[in-house]
Amino acid sequence: MTSRLGLDFFINLVAAGLARGTPILFATLGGIITERSGVMNLGIEGMMLVGAMTAFSTARSTNNALLGVCTGMLAGATLALAYAIVVVHLRADQVVSGLALVFFGSGLSSMLGASLVDQKEATARIPSLSLSVLEDLPILGPVLFKQNLMVWLGLALVACGSWILFKTRWGLVLRAVGEHPAQADSLGISVLTVRTVCVMIGGAMAGLAGASLSLAISPGWVDGMTAGQGWVAVGLVIFARWNPGRALIGAWLFGTLRRLPLDLQGVPSLPVFHNPNIGYFLSMLPYLFVIGAMIVGSRQALRRRLGAPASLGLPWFRGDRG
Amino acid sequence: MRFPRLLAIVTLTSLTAVSACSKKNSPNGSDSTVGKHAIPAAQEGKFNVAFVHVGPVGDGGWTYAQDQGRKYLLQQIPEVHTAHVESVAEGAESEQVIRALARKGFNLVVATSFGFMDSTETVAKEFPNTKFIHISGFKKNDTNFGNAFGAMEQMKYLAGMIAGARAAQDGVPRLGYIAPYPIPEVVRLGNALMLGAKQTCPQCTMEIRWMNSWFDPGKEQEAAESMFNAGVQVVLTGADTTGPIVVAGQKKKWAVGYDSNNACDADKAHCLTTPYWNWGVFYVDAVKQMRAGSWKPSSWYGEADSGLLGLIGFEDGATPAPGVPESVIPVVREKLAAMKAGTFTRFDVFAGPIKDNRGKEVLPEGKRLTQEDLEGLPGCKVCMNWLAEGILGQLSPK
After folding, report:
1. Which of A53, A102, A305, B100 gets the highest tally of CB atoms within 10 A of its CB?
2. Cα-flanking dihedrals φ and ψ of residue A54, to 5°?
3. What is the pLDDT of residues A27-81, one digit of tens each?
């Protein structure tokens, strides 16, 4: 048998990890923006599903993938606006409302997407980058230059997000609202507006995550296609310590761990991985990783030390102290 | 203060209500639920049939094909009322769902996943007046619980011939099989693919990616991608979605789907063929017998001649996909005709000599496997725990 634990194996693994991690990266970045402003949104999974379904449906009927991405983001943002009204303005419990959003999103996408299932013909998709010269570069070619445009957008948004959060006045306002809403308010910042906008950006990013799934990374609409990736993003926000750069590492690690067990089954020199039972164990790895991140993030003291926004999950209105 | 909170509660309640409504498709509302599943109600004066599925009917594969069968049944027999519960977990949850349906007064409950077998058996004991059919298993009783499956190995054998011919023509004799679970059904179908491929491509090998899942759209695509990256030319899927066909299109390679008669629509140019199920013919037959009172529980096993099985591009009057090599078309047509005539059965697919992938002869010349062997049932002599020569992989530690 040919090959195959050589360089190609690792190049393919890294490339696949980047691609598969991209939807999770978008969702995680959105989660970071939302949580940095002091609002927790567990509903990422629901918004992703609606985004994926809307994007696919639009791309189908207009044959325009870009338009699909836009409507997917719009759908995510719209759901997020509803969520913001409930938790930011009406100050409902964020955990319960977030869960409701998941159920709502999965039900809505399942219902509206039912008619898309019978139709399987190819739909407009987001293309891969084609830079014929660079594609042939060793290592970098397959890892970076043969990737889908969405992967590049992910990398760009990481840079962009870091810059906005930490280098601009806008980012300062956003973080201030998440740390000390009362003080931000006394400086004349409208806490509720900032939070609403941030929740909507988070929703648009979740919609983008869904759209990148249904139009690029695993094209097509299948009911429930996110398969828990929205929850993974919730965990990765904590792993990333609310920092876009670390979100990239987390998403890439998750994508790679997801792929590793499959690739290992094709290596003839490692027969132990051909055993189907070992697959059960390996399939747990990415989720163990997320559970670990969640355990770390759930301890209040540790959470502070990790840099969680001080007012995360606490509703605010003028007249409240704190 | 009070007003916003009230508004929040109202908004949340309505959100939840909308999502709950959109989850189910049965026309009748009902008051009972099992976990997240709403249990539909039976209709007075009709012959009520309920289906319990492991995946969503929107999977475009196995469950979708089952639901097409349900629709066909409705269309053929107007006195029937049907309902279905989808995405039911195997094990305890399935038992609760099946029991709840029986309690609701359904005349027939059909459980469509291998892992529902024991739950169906348990509930069948409790409700002697309700009939139960389990798909893809092997248990039954003498009064109200039967099982059914079909000789998909026949169609897989033909699909293997097509895939092998394609790989041989492309000069890359490497196939890949996406395998859900290491159970006899999946092993049998994988072996049938390999035996078929050997007919047209003796030098072909086939690697395996185990999913440990019937339905995982993302993972099925990744498995296909993993194999194409490793140099495989044709990926044949045994799992539920059409994802692998889409990936074949992206990689400009080939794929063979499974389960539903529109699977190739995912990418016609890169899909060679798809073996699929016509469950409707079986359900209509079973319900007719039940209404006439002549139904007896059995282990029904449909061959190509029953109409249960199909192969995209090779139905009467159909044109094979553009990727199918010209030379193999008449060969496949001839074999298919023999299968439909009953002269090339599943036992001819598994006829000796057969070697396993460790070089051991599992079946000598002139011998055939039995039904027990094929399904790995108690009493099997050459049980379905071997992989045919050419398959790279193993079922258990050495």
Report:
1. A53
2. -60, -45
3. 999 999 999 999 999 999 999 999 999 999 999 889 899 999 999 999 999 999 9
A110/B56 touch (CB, cutoff 8 Å), yes or no: yes
Mean confidence (pLDDT) of chain B? 89
Q: Say how many C-beta atoms besides its own lie within 10 A of residue A82's C-beta.
A: 17
Q: Is the pLDDT of residue A120 over 60?
A: no
Give, in degrees to the nearest 5, the angle at Cα B319 between B315 and B323.
120
Written in H, E and C, the secondary structure of chain B is: CHHHHHHHHHHHHHHHHHHHHHHCCCCCCCCCEECCEECCCCCCCCEEEEEECCCCHHHCCHHHHHHHHHHHHHHHCCCEEEEEECCCCCCHHHHHHHHHHHHCCCCEEEECCHHHHHHHHHHHHHCCCCEEEEECCCCCCCCCEEEEEECHHHHHHHHHHHHHHHHHHHCCCEEEEEECCCCHHHHHHHHHHHHHHHHHCCCCEEEEEECCCCCCHHHHHHHHHHHHHCCCCEEEECCCCCHHHHHHHHHCCEEECCECCCHHHHCCCCEEECEEECHHHHHHHHHHHHHHCCCCCCEEEECHHHCCEEECCCCCCCCCCCCCCCCHHHHHHHHHHHHHCCCCCHHHHCECCEEECCCCEEECCCCECCHHHHHCCCCCCCCCCCCECCEECCCCCC
Quick check: A103 and B16 CB within 8 A?
yes
Residue A60 forms contact with B (CB below 8 Å): no
Q: pLDDT (tens digit, 9 = 90+) per residue, A200-237? A: 999 999 999 999 999 988 788 888 888 888 988 998 99
Domain ranges of chain A: 2-303
Domains recognised in chain B with CATH numbers: 12-149+279-302 (3.40.50.2300), 152-277+313-392 (3.40.50.2300)
Helix (H, G, I), strand (E, B) or coil at A188: coil
Tell which residue, A222, A263, A256, A264, has the closest CA to residue A21. Answer: A256
**Per-residue pLDDT at A122:** 59
| Percentage with pLDDT > 70 across chain B | 91
Residues 9-38 of A with CB under 8 A from B: 12, 16, 20
Give how far A25 is from chain B: nearest CA, Å: 16
Enter the pTM of the model.
0.81
Q: What's the rounded Cα separation, in Å, for the pair B373 and B83? A: 35
Task: Write the residue in B11, B59, B64 that is nearest to A86 by C-beta.
Answer: B11
Residues on chain A touching B216 (C-beta within 8 angstroms):
227
The CATH class, in words, for A2-303 is mainly alpha
Helix ranges restricted to H, A217-275: 229-239, 244-264
**Is the CB of B395 less than 8 angstroms away from the CB of A220?**
no
Q: How far is A175 from chain B (nearest CA, A)?
A: 26
ipTM: 0.76
pLDDT at A177 over 50: yes
Whether B395 sits inside 8 A of A276 (CB atoms) is yes
